[in-house]
What does this fold into?
Amino acid sequence: MAALEIHNVRKEFGSERVLKDVSISIDSGEFLILVGPSGCGKSTLMNAIAGLEPVTSGNIYIDGEDVTWRPPADRDIAMVFQSYALYPSMSVRQNISFGLEMRKVPKAEREAAVERVADLLQITHLLERKPAQLSGGQRQRVAMGRALAREPKVYLFDEPLSNLDAKLRVDMRTEIKKLHQRLGTTIVYVTHDQVEAMTLADCIAVMRDGHILQLGSPDEVYNNPVDMFVAGFMGSPSMNFIRATLEDSNGGYQLRIATPGEEELVLPWPEARIAPDMAERLNQPVILGLRPEHFSEEDERLTSQAEGTLLSASVAVVEPTGADILLRLPLGEQEVTARVGPKCAVVAGERLSLRVDMGRAILFDAETEQRIA
Amino acid sequence: MANVIRRQTPAARLSRGLLYGVLILAALFYILPLVVMLMTSVKPLSEISAGSLLSLPQNPTLAPWTKAWGEACTGMRCDGVGGYFWNSFAIVIPAVLISTTIGALNGYALTKWRFKGSELVFALMLFGCFIPFQVVLLPMAQTLGWLGISSSRAGLILVHVVFGIAFTTLFFRNFYVGIPNELVSAAKLDGAGFFRIFWRILLPVSAPIIVVSVIWQFTQIWNDFLFGVAFSAHNTQPVTVALNNLVNTSTGVREYNVDMAAAMIAALPTLVVYVLAGKYFVRGLTAGSVKG
It folds into this structure.
């Protein structure tokens, strides 16, 4: 049975429609991430699940029960807030046990729950402290502890890592993932950070303007985006969108990229990936989507086995990140980002031979921004 | 101060000296009335009529104080201001507690349980801060009559509570606006209700604004004269009214020393409250504007 089911939920503030017919269903133990730019409705959806804001229409089911009109306390959920929302006047111990106390759990059981959670999150030595005496990372742990103590059916995380510094964020991210693997909890997690979404989720819902654009596994969302928005939102640096014209080439297809005054640039479209819609777009403008890692440095030793189409371009900017190097290169009238290995010795201004893995390229309609192939 | 960098030329020192001189003179000027009151209150009457206002008392005596407290005539009765002093407490303490409690609940509801029109309700309540006392004297007298509590302490308490709520609501509302709503959301998810959240989450962090509200209300109500004179009987009068009666009662020679002692007695509680809790008052008023 689905642990959480959202049926045609709409939310309106006056005439403004914040959620437009959202439906999601996740199984018990699944990690769902709601991701999208600010104002896309993801936090509103989270608040609707939590019961902090009523929906305009639609239904929400938790573990098969309709909870649409139940107050937050009766939904068997726990939430970790962006600001942690620890009760400032209470010690860590009281913070963790408050929810149990409100539910009239006997003291001995409460104590046991606090010990169990503190042990799990390694905060036993902090139990007597007040929130003001804790660092950001420690507060984050306590906030999770407060949620874990109640053992609810569904956990809600509202951008829980956005107030931490970069290093701590990566550590806590791993920790949340470990915790999820260990406890098998059902989690709904809101973030605007696509790296968090990719690394944590079993299932990602990419949202925009109150719609869910795509719901799928991280792999699907990343490699098979439904439109240009999803493609551009997921991945950093983001996907290159190159304006091109779709042409016929001996029964197959090829893409011509406009290069005024330079040698022509034509990329063949792999036969295996021809879609039926392509025929009607012959000689029309399309958008070619290539991720930075779809480019690779031409290696002469491997030429015989190398896949992909060779092209050469002059390098405008070289940005080494340590693990790899990002190159900015003009391709026709646009500049694209390519990710190459850290050993690449190219200098800005030089020309470089690159291979493009057209087998992973994605084609979008230039007007509707929807995917063609 | 050692932690300020300033020029050390003779001219700079001279101008600094002048600055301090002016400031000290201004301070003396402001403290003078209090000094005169204190000195006059411990002088025997003969010294007052003979000497100047500023002369030091030659034979200090506490007799004017004991007379002001227990024997001086206020109108028809001659039992001092002592009884009225306690009257004032009996009015001020309940009025302060009730108005602060209601203000806290109002502020909490207006910020953490917003409803349609809550901003309008707040704006209307703010209006109450600007209504002059005189305007409500007659309708209030009528209301107290209907309620059957005219000329009683309960009536005066009610008047002060009604007038105080506007200010206490303003204080608490502005304080609670700065407290994150997520705290309340978290407590709702944890299963706490309206009063439980207030009692367990909000109230424990409200100390600064409670101090502000209590000092403000205490000072306002203690110093009130108009409501005191309009809505009290002779046995429920606050000390401010008694002081007025004492000063205005003419029985031959005017006893300035007793008047001064009575005035000091009437002013003492607000002074004490401010001296004891003044720093929390300033801290509470600025709470929220600076983090940490």
Observations:
- The interface with chain A takes residues 180, 182-183, 185-192, 196, 200-201, 204-205 of chain B (CB under 8 Å).
